Amino acid sequence: QVQLVESGGGLVQAGASLRLSCAASGRAFHSYRMAWFRQDPGKEREFVAAISWDGGSTHYADSVKGRFTISRDNAKNTVYLQMNSLKPEDTAVYYCAADQTRPWAVVRNSPLDFASWGQGTQVTVSS
Question: Which of 72, 46, 47 is nearest to 57 (CA)?
């Protein structure tokens, strides 16, 4: 079990940068695969990025590849999402999620595999 709290969202202009943080509580944070998802009202939840339990592997959605970077600091129980060159289409609520069933996996990321979720943080990118 791990509890997650996202922060760092806000309103920015296109081309700006934001860094989202996901603070986790739990003794075995280092044993979880972590991921970021996003969702706009009326749309399906969309995978953004994932990172393996040890940070050794990462995977990104094509829509954010080259612009976003996921990282983790297990000593601080924190996962980050650095978002650069933001576009209006990046506007969404961003969610942090944790999976303990396949902590090494990063390529396949179904929301159903993630048992723990944060409350979400709003990112709005204006034109």
Answer: 72
Cα–chain-centroid distance for residue 90? 13
Rounded Cα gap, residues 4 and 84, in angstroms: 23
Pairing of strands 78-83, 58-60: unpaired
Q: Please state, in angstroms and rounded to a whole number, the distance separating the CA atoms of residues 8 and 104.
A: 26
Q: Residue 94: its pLDDT value, please? A: 98
Residue 33: C-alpha distances to residues 8, 21, 88, 96 (Å): 21, 15, 28, 11
SS3 111: helix
Is residue 28's pLDDT more than 90?
no
Q: How far is CA 15 from the centre of its chain?
A: 19
Residues 113 and 127: their CA atoms lie apart, in Å, by 35
> Please, is 4 exposed, middle or buried when counting C-beta atoms within 10 Å of its C-beta (0-12, 13-18, 19+)?
buried
Q: Are strands 121-126 and 10-13 parallel, antiparallel or unpaired?
A: parallel
Give the mean model confidence (pLDDT) for residues 7-14.
98
